[in-house]
Every structure is written in C-alpha cells, then in structure tokens.
Amino acid sequence: MEVFFLNVATSLNAGTVLAIAALGLLLNEKAGIVNLGAEGMMLCAALAGFATVVHTGSGLAGLGAGMLAGAALAAIFGVLVIWLNTNQYATGLALSLFGVGFSAFAGVAYTRENLSGKMVSTPSIWSDVPVIGPGLARLDGMVWVGLALALGMIWFFYRTRAGLVLRSVGENPDSAHALGYPVRFIRWLAVVAGGSLCGLAGAYLSTQYTPLWTEGMTAGRGWIALALTTFATWRPARVLLGAYLFGAVTMAQFYLQGRGVQISAEFLSMLPYLATIVVLVLISRNPTWIRTNMPASIGKPFHPGA
C-alpha cells in the first residue's frame, strides 16, 4: 500500500507541470486567444528559472523569474495578435520555434550546472505518518499550488463578475465591446496571465521537478498542455484530472521498466504522446460536443467597429 501511495505522488508531481501550463492556456482560450507558443515559453522560463537559482540560490526567485519570462513573451505575442492582427496560429508557432532556439543558444553555459546544495530543503511533516506519510512527503509543494489554481479558476470563471466578462469576451467580443468593455485589453491581460502560468510550469520543471537544465527539456509538454484544454472541454477541474492522468501515463513507463516488463524502452517513452493522440481522436468523433463547450470566438480576431 505504501508503494501505491508513492506511485500516486510521483504521478501527481509529473502531472502538475502539465496542469499549471494547461490552466494558463485555458485562461487564454476562455478569452478567445489560441497560443501555440506554450512549448517555447516553457523552455525560456525553465532556463530563466534555472539560471536565477544558480546565481541566487533561491527557489522562489527562480519560479518568479520563470513567471516573468513567460509573461514577457506572452505580452509580445498578445500585442502582435490582438493589436497588429497577425495570425494567431502562425504567431504562436513562431513563438514556440523562437523559444526552442533561444533557450538552446542561451542555455549552453548552464548545461553543466547542478542545483544540488544551492537550495535548502526542509524535512516534510508527513514523513512519520503511517502508510500515506511517505507518499505525502514525496509530493512537491507545487502540487498544492496547481490544485489551488484550478479551484481559483472555477471560482473566478463562474462566481465573479470579472470571470463573466472574460468569458463574454471569448464568446461574443462584439457584444462585450458594445457594452463598453475594453475587449482587446482584457484579452491581452488574459494572454499575459496565461503566459505567466506557462512560465511557472517551465520554471518548476527545471528547478524542482528535474533540477537541471538540458536543451529541449520540456519534451513536448507544452503541446500536451495545449491538447489538454480540448480534452478537458475548457473546464478547469477536467484540466486537472486530465493532467494527472497524463502524469500517471508518463510514470507508467518507469514503473514497467522497473518491473522488468519486456517492452521496448522507445515504445514506453512514447506512451504519453500516444495517449494524447488517442484521446484527441476519440474526442474529435463528437464535434458537436466540442462546439457546445468551446468558446464561440476562440481563434477569431476582433476588430472594433468592423
């Protein structure tokens, strides 16, 4: 039983990276903006967070630097697609390619760095609890942050006036504009906030989950997070559930290898991406369900007075 809870804890840790990034992308899409640049933003934020910890020794500073990096890139993306009316999909792809290339170039000096000893770790209060204690002690603090973010978004979207305005901007920006709401500015704020969450996910990956820096270390997590928003039909609770499911699939490869299962290591490594494709294919078989749940103006530019 103790081993079971340890496996659950490692799955939750793995899923938290996806959950935080996907919640950021969900915030964008609720406002009607599709950002395909999550992979690039996460990589740049991972590098920014790792470099900050190397030079300061502060894990919190590293997470903050990652959020700032993600927010800055998202702010540029927002200006391009919201005010300059560039194509959202092409601009997002360009941002992703830029992030991959820039992080590889700028991160060369940090590939040999090690965070061991640079951050002070404290013993968990759960360590001595029978059965479930070791599992709870294995949980990263960011797991609770991801859970709080999901609950906060549910409250924000469906219990606050600001959340209602944000959803109205994503559903019918013309009507929101007619009521006097600054549609472009609201969309830009949502893009920046979503980018900061993608940055938080990237910084968590490089500073806590796998405390090292390697080129392309996100390994497609930004794309999986993007797929998660569709998988979850744009609901925060379902995003969290889907992220943990993908986290469990990711950890399954290590569990099966540890059990000596005679399956190719390459096949096990592709399990999370195969699961993503299978889920999207299954969801796509019911386009009416997707149209019913997705924001009506997602991916569509808004031109005031047009």
Automatic annotation (TrEMBL):
Name listed for the protein in its UniProt record: Nucleoside ABC transporter membrane protein
Keywords for this protein: Cell membrane, Membrane, Transmembrane, Transmembrane helix
Parts of the chain that traverse the membrane: 6-26, 33-54, 60-84, 91-110, 141-158, 185-206, 212-232, 239-256, 262-283
Subcellular location: Cell membrane
Stored Pfam families: BPD_transp_2
GO cellular component annotations of the record: plasma membrane
Topological type in the membrane: Multi-pass membrane protein
PANTHER family: ABC TRANSPORTER PERMEASE PROTEIN, SUGAR ABC TRANSPORTER INTEGRAL MEMBRANE PROTEIN-RELATED
Organism of derivation: Tepidicella xavieri
Gene Ontology MF term list: transmembrane transporter activity
Keyword Transmembrane helix: yes
Main location: membrane
InterPro entries in UniProt: ABC_transp_permease
